[in-house]
Automatic annotation (TrEMBL):
It holds the Pfam family Lactamase_B. It comes from Rhabdobacter roseus. InterPro entries: Beta_Casp, MBL, Metallo-B-lactamas, RibonucZ/Hydroxyglut_hydro, RMMBL. The lineage of its organism: Bacteria, Pseudomonadati, Bacteroidota, Cytophagia, Cytophagales. The keyword Hydrolase applies. This is Metallo-beta-lactamase family protein. GO terms for molecular function: hydrolase activity; RNA endonuclease activity. Keywords: Hydrolase. Residues 13-259 form the Metallo-beta-lactamase domain. Residues 264-389 form the Beta-Casp domain. SUPFAM superfamilies: Metallo-hydrolase/oxidoreductase. PANTHER family: CLEAVAGE AND POLYADENYLATION SPECIFICITY FACTOR FAMILY MEMBER (PTHR11203), INTEGRATOR COMPLEX SUBUNIT 11 (PTHR11203:SF37).
């Protein structure tokens, strides 16, 4: 059995791992790499003469841990370049991945359309120059989705004569999974667990990460490998505190940049609970993300897979996410018109890193207002607008224009979907130190991996590897 690491090595994004069992090839995740800029990606793709560093026609099956684009975003390109197999994932992951990939295809189409404009006039028949190799359109997404095979948690599925897989709930996102692969080579059974992204306990809506059986090898994410979540309050306590300070004591507006899939649903559910419990004043809440709206419908559809608290709340109140004073903004015009709403309000908009999406114009419209607050509730990659705001920059540039930062900038981490260092340690500790042969750390900043490796070694896990891109191991 051979394992090669092709993504999320010594960085956070681009999860992609190739497992070879005899002549059967399994790709675990197929994510977009956001750690490279456009120029770096083009150089890499030109060198490879492909989006991928391997031949997609030789891959037999893809195992998908969850829907986020850094895990799923290159699946249409895999089919574009000749892959003919199936993508195995849970049912909610199938639904959410479809939404995210179609949203990405729409962005690609908009960029291609913009390239075809010359001086404001469309040049008919002219082909766009330098179309990025990793661009795909909706038809290619639909072609890929026809090959998805949904599976249930906790059931063993045989994907080849000598390979079986079992999916276990990972928390983090609706449908997210740890994947246990069992393979037989020369009469010997070998097992390897891919953590996916590990969630945290008692997170809004989601069930806690499920335990996984003993494995021979463990591929473990390390996003928060050297950090602890600081805020020990419940999401309701943390959110109502911010709302009272920013919208009640001061009649201002609260802008919450958030990811459309996962984080938006946790926010809306928490706000709904606050309204039902009469802790929230009658403020308008604007949810400004078409993708967020579509994802919320998926969460509602699969509510049977949510945690017991969420199911009980739905039984008592009918709706998990809809409440009085909640307004979904569908059109771009409606989104821009919110700037003219002068009463205290809450605006929830994507993206969470304040990089692209409608949230940029909300931040631009309010960044110079000392009565406005921008609440950051999740991870922001270095260099993004969210990262700059988080690090206290006095001026930021949005869409080419410089803005002084006069608005209040706050951060809470109660809505982070990633488990922290202690959650990661607890996940690893399900594996016996004597029986686990090796741990591979992926999906994290390099320093986070180094620190987490040291933590694991101090509690008895001696064989911990931090692979390089392209590094292979015989298991």
């Amino acid at each position: 059995m051979k394992l090669t690491f092709w993504g999320a090595t010594r960085q956070v994004t681009g999860s992609m791992y190739l497992l070879e069992v005899d002549d059967y090839r399994i790709l675990i995740d197929c994510g977009s790499n956001f750690d490279l800029n456009e120029k770096e990606k083009k150089a890499l793709f030109d060198e490879q003469k492909s989006v991928f560093p391997f031949d997609p026609t030789l891959v037999n099956t893809v195992l998908l841990t969850h829907a986020h684009i850094d895990h799923s975003g290159n699946i249409p390109n895999l089919y574009k370049e000749g892959f003919e197999g199936q993508v195995v994932c849970t049912e909610p992951t199938f639904a959410l991945t479809g939404l995210l990939l179609k949203d990405a295809a729409l962005l690609h189409q908009k960029r291609l359309n913009a390239q075809q404009q010359g001086g404001g006039k469309k040049k008919r028949g002219k082909k766009p120059k330098d179309v990025p190799r990793d661009f795909f359109l909706e038809k290619q997404v639909n072609d890929a989705l026809e090959n998805f095979v949904p599976v249930a948690y906790g059931q063993r599925y045989r994907i080849a004569d000598h390979v079986s897989v079992t999916y276990f709930a990972a928390g983090h996102l609706l449908g997210a999974a740890h994947i246990l692969v069992e393979a037989w080579e020369n009469g010997e059974k070998k097992t390897i667990c891919f953590s996916g992204d590990i969630g945290r306990r008692n997170y809004p809506l989601l069930i806690d990460p499920q335990p996984v059986p003993q494995a021979d090898y463990l591929v473990c994410e390390s996003t928060y490998g050297n950090r602890l979540h600081l805020d020990q309050r419940s999401p309701e306590e943390a959110l109502i505190d911010v709302i009272h300070r920013t919208c009640v004591e001061i009649p201002g507006r609260l802008i919450i940049p958030t990811f459309s899939v996962g984080r938006t649903q946790a926010l809306l559910y928490t706000l709904n609970r606050l309204y039902v419990e009469h802790n929230l004043p009658p403020l308008k809440v604007f949810s400004d993300s078409p993708l967020g709206f579509a994802s919320t419908r998926v969460y509602q559809k699969y509510s049977r897979l949510l945690n017991q608290e969420a199911r009980a709340f739905q039984n008592s109140n009918d709706m998990l996410f809809d409440f009085e004073n909640l307004i979904y903004l569908e059109s771009s015009d409606a989104s821009r018109a919110v700037s003219n709403y002068n009463e205290p309000c809450i605006i929830i908009s994507s993206s969470g890193m304040v990089q692209g999406g409608r949230v940029e114009h909300h931040v631009a419209a309010n960044i110079g207002n000392p009565y406005a607050t921008i609440l950051l509730i999740g991870y922001a990659s270095e260099g993004t607008l969210g990262w700059r705001l988080m690090n206290g920059q006095d001026n930021i540039i949005i869409q080419g224009q410089k803005h002084p930062v006069l608005a209040n900038i706050e951060k809470i981490d109660v809505f982070s979907g990633h488990g922290d260092r202690d959650d990661l340690v607890n996940f690893v500790k399900m594996q016996d130190t004597e029986r686990l042969k090796k741990i591979f750390l992926i999906h994290g900043e390099h320093q986070s991996m180094l620190d987490f490796k040291e933590t694991l070694q101090t509690i008895g896990y001696g064989q911990v590897e931090i692979p390089d891109r392209g590094q292979s191991y015989d298991l």
